[in-house]
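In the laboratory, one determines a bound structure by crystallizing the protein with its ligand and collecting diffraction data. In a computational setting the workflow is compressed into a single prediction: the sequence and the ligand go in, and a structural description comes out. We illustrate the idea with iron/sulfur cluster.
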Amino acid sequence: MKKRVELLAPAGNLEKLKMAVQYGADAVYLAGKLFGLRTASDNFGFDEMKEGVSYAHEHGKKAYLTMNIIAHNQNVSQVVPFLEEAVQTGIDGVIVSDPGIFQIIREAQPDLPIHISTQTSTANYRTVEFWHRLGAKRIVLARELSLEEIREISEKMPDAELEVFIHGAMCISYSGRCLLSNYMAGRDANQGDCAHPCRWRYHLVEEKRPGQYYPIEEDSSGTFVFNSKDLCLLPHLPELIQSGVTSLKIEGRVKSSFYVATVVKAYREAIDAFYEGRFQDVEQWMEEVRKVSNRSFTTGFFFGKPGPEAHNYNTSSYIRNYDFIGLVTGYDEEAGRLIVEQRNHFRSGETIEILPPEGSFTQLTLKELYDEEGNRIESAPHPQMKVLLAGIPPFPVNSILRRRTITGNTGKTAESGL
Ligand code: SF4
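The predicted complex, in structure-token form:
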């Protein structure tokens, strides 16, 4: 029987790695200080990498290292020394896109599993065969594939591990094959430094009338012609799992711990429900993924080439219905108080939800708040301050406190689909 599908989550830093593991990921992917396509995420030094990989292994999970930049000459000599240290941390594999880096790794660490990044835009079974014959263990398929194409590749290449993206931001181009950011901001998307100009607002200018901006508008908000909605394949997990893929990947190493935990937990529960024959009531999981920032959802290329419905023409801001307000760090048994690290301002009297790593969330009203010295407070004045909550039962460490966004505000655009 085929192994259960892997749920693979982003780990932008150590905290996010631990949250992903606790909330149900089977594996995480992370970047070191070199070669990973994410300059905006914190990324891991080797000591942290070792701690993160050990944490994953202690919980029976895997950790893969991304090395998927488009490499230039100056990068070549850095590969082996970087890799030697990375291997010492116990990583379970590396994700690469550059054939030169692939070759160097095969020569230097022949036993290290290599995954071929989505940056290679692998979109047919012969390309999968090409990488598989060269010794790649897994191929991350291009995001621009339909279910039918994924099925066909899986049938024709049963021995190759296939990985597909199931959730997160999308590029307007084939992933990574975009020079907008280089051209407009001098920042290289293929080196992990995308400025996201695909989300910017555009006007029309006639060349002899500089400074006269003609609006191109869907409505008064403007027009965001390149602004893709976020991918969400949660309702289609059964078809995807039955297609024979090995791993389901969530995008977003620069997203928050709150985002990672919430999305991972929703997919974990949905995948488990599928294997237990109770994949119904998809809305319960969709409701959860809607509670973290998103640009509303699309199925991308899953059912064929997407039309205008896959884009958000009204705004490039996120929809954000809930705020991450705190993280449970312990419980004071003697005083009967839940210990929380504040992440966003909250005060007594507010209705909040507490989401533990396992089980459903609890809604409750905050009663008495105390600081670490035992003084009663109405709210915590400093970010990251420890706050003790009276009258609330114990919850596991790293349970999330969230609150419906008061103003219904939206976040600023910040992330890409690389
Ligand atoms: S997010 Fe993707 S499509 Fe948008 S500018 Fe960056 S690389 Fe290009």
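Residues 257-275 form the longest helix (19 residues). Keep in mind that any predicted model is a hypothesis to be tested, not a measurement.
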